[in-house]
Amino acid sequence: MVLVKSYCEANSSISKTWLDEGISPCFYFTLVPTILLSIAFFLGTIYCIGYQKYGTAMEPKFIPRSSLYRFQFSISVLLLAQFLGGLLWQIITAATATGIELPGYVVLYSCFSTLGWAWATVLLTVERHRVLVMDRTRGHSTFLLLFWALAFSAENLAFVSWYSPHWWWRLDSTEHKVQFSLWLIRYISTGLLFILGLRAPGLPRKPYMLLINEDERDVENSGQSLLGGRQQNQSTWQGFRKKVRLLMSYMWPKGNILLQMLVVFCVGLLGAERAINVFVPIYYKNIVDGLTDGSSWHTVATTVCVYVLLKFLQGGGAGASGFVSNMRSFMWIRVQQFTNRVVQVQLFAHLHALSLRWHLGRKTGDVLRSIDRGTSSINSLLSYIVFSIFPTIADIIISIIYFVTYFNAWFGLIVFVCMALYLTLTIIITEWRTKYRRDMNQQDNEARSKAVDSLLNFETVKYYNAENYEVGRFEDAILKYQESQWKTQASLALLNQTQNIIIASGLLSGSLLCAYFVTEGKFQVGDFVLFGTYIIQLCTPLNWFGTYYSMIQNSFIDMENMFSLFEEEEEVKDEVNAGNLVYRHGKVEFENVFFSYRDGKEILKDVSFTVLPGQTVALVGPSGSGKSTVIRLLFRFYNIQGGCISIDGQDISTVKQSSLRAHIGVVPQDTVLFNDDIRNNIRYGRISATDQEVEEAAIAADIHDRIMTFPEGYDTQVGERGLKLSGGEKQRVAIARTILKAPQIILLDEATSALDTQTERNIQASLNKVCVNRTTIVVAHRLSTIIGADQILVLNEGQIAERGRHDELLTKGGLYADMWMKQQQAQDTDSSSDTEAKDHTSEKLQPPSASAGHHH
């Protein structure tokens, strides 16, 4: 039996491209596989030769494990099976049924398509395991993206033949139903392959050579952003699902029924806008038809009123400034405020939960700038996605269905092709210009950080007469920022011009086609008006779609630093079942403690000591010996690497940090005050304290009389970081703050280092009263201040070199005795210098005659 008698059907030929209101199946199923197979073998072979000759096999550890890649590969295999299965089904049908011939183009289509897709699947596998060494791009090769795009576009051409009886759209026979099912598989599969191809899930996110270089060197400190995170030249859609899930949690106001109802109401208004956008052009068409057909005044007037009402609800087009959109924007204000508040509060709380190590390495200006941009971008991002992107896509889909249903498939094809080109080029160009936006943000951060650092160090700038230097540095940073800004704006102009060309081309082709049908008598004038109104209405959101996409892209870029702040892990965390510290007597124990700020350099090495309840232990030693580190570890700013720190037998790592710190008061060496009045700065020790208690604490810290000499007394503003107060005044405010807290354990980190001798003695007397019956650990530089300590620990290179009371250590004649002698000699030298200076001053003040007589 001869299954194939002719290449085309009996009533068709390869030369006929249009047959019965549709594309000729013989022409279509010959052209499409031929083009795809030619591209596959020509470009695919070149790529395969290039990968084999000039490429190298990727190490398995650099190949990402991706379920999406497995899905991508499975789709390719499914397409191969579909082509072979479809051919086998048609052969069996032609062999078993009488009067059915199998056209030759069906065999050619199946064979060519199978070969082309097999070659594309092979290259998909080659790209996953081999890479061009000099390849500086990421993602799939141009061949695969072009192949998938053409295949998907070819399947969309079937819509043009919507009314043709030679295609399967009517589903009036088993053959048509099977062919439609096979087409549906091809349509969905090629579309998914193209979309997944833009993301390239099976390939590394960064160039392979960069991965190798990063693997071969220590990258712990390289590539760190100003926030402590790593800046990567990756797509802003990386981790899109995670980012959107985080955003949605902020948008839906949990626990607030009123706001939840507002969200639902706003979504309902969004759906109403879509319906209004459909009926506005229809009623405009009815007005034109009514005027041209000679309808009654009552009918035309009613139609005009309905049209104006719809136009009032819609606004200027595309849902802009209409009654519905204004109502939705008004209702959304509270939801937007909720999102903004929750994001800022959670981020602020998260920053306070980060470790001291992170805060010491941060740049304040950069962090604040990132928070500002990030929180503002969240609101704009939600607004663009929910109220711009989704509605625009919905309008496009509705318009395609409407044009195909009420006009013909050509208009739907024009809208679809225009949309596909527009979105594809928008995505490609926007992804390309992302690097410029990211670089502009980095330069902006640099400029702001330089400005903040310079202003915070205003006095230092004045000391060294470096105003011109600071201004020059800031100007250089601004120039770099403006250069990046120019690149960003120029690439944006290129994007806008490309979008305008595509929209204008679609509008021109559609208008000419519609005008042609009107002149042929197939359409009425009202249909042309309907098309023009609808297409312009559609082009408006489509024209803004690129802006929305760019804004979303920019918002994601602006949010990257904020997300990196959220992703910073807390170094010091409470255990899951951590309890409160049960304070009994105040016994502090260090048992074999090891600690290092960085790997390789230990700050404390096997440190062990005990502070009995009510005792005062002093820590002395050269700079960098680990004295202040002991204070920080006891306050649990860091986790130790070995040993145990306990209070009353309770390991401080097993109790809640808040309960631990509630029992400990610290007077730091470098006191930084809030930009508030003195009363509130002292009250910070205990927020609930009364004014009388604040003043009593100030009296105990020997600063009350000094405060009363200020014109505004306790209401005196201390300035940023307390710069309006002297070093001694700031230190006494810190001491008063700690006295007000009334802790059971007191840590003094060189608390009197910034005070003069007389004030130091007064403060020491006050501290001695405060520390009575309290466990106290003192870090001291002046050994004279810790003579009365119950125990003195001498630290040297992270170890306890000596321990004992003052007299015992002097008797030993060791490191402590040497430090004591050097300080005594320094004090004697200072005293003699002061005496000589006074004598010299007195001599200069004597009258000339007396001075001359004495000289004689």
Written account of the structure:
- This protein has 856 residues and is an alpha/beta fold.
- It has 3 domains: 25-199, no CATH class; 272-558, ABC transporter type 1, transmembrane domain (ABC transporter transmembrane region fold); 588-814, Rossmann fold, CATH 3.40.50.300.
- Helix content is 63%, strand content 7%.
- It has 26 helices and 12 strands.
- Strands 8-9-10-5-11-12 form a 6-stranded mixed sheet, with helices on both faces. Strands 4-3-6-7 form a 4-stranded antiparallel sheet, with helices on one face. Strands 1-2 form a two-stranded antiparallel ribbon.
- A hairpin with an 8-residue loop joins β3 and β4.
- The longest helix has 53 residues, at 467-519.
Gap between N and C termini, in Å? Answer: 148 Å
Examine the secondary-structure arrangement and name the CATH architecture of the largest domain. Answer: Up-down Bundle
For the largest beta-sheet, the strand count, sense and barrel status come to: 6 strands, mixed
CATH superfamily of the largest domain: ABC transporter type 1, transmembrane domain
Global outline: elongated
Name the average pLDDT. Answer: 77
What Rg, in angstroms, do the CA atoms define?
Answer: 39 Å
Question: Looking across the biggest beta sheet, what order are the strands in?
Answer: 8-9-10-5-11-12
Helix content: 55-70%
Q: Give the beta-strand count.
A: 12
Q: Please, what is the oligomeric state?
A: single chain
Family: Belongs to the ABC transporter superfamily. ABCB family. Heavy Metal importer (TC 3.A.1.210) subfamily.
Domain ABC transporter: 588-822
Protein name: ATP-binding cassette sub-family B member 6
Region (Disordered): 822-856
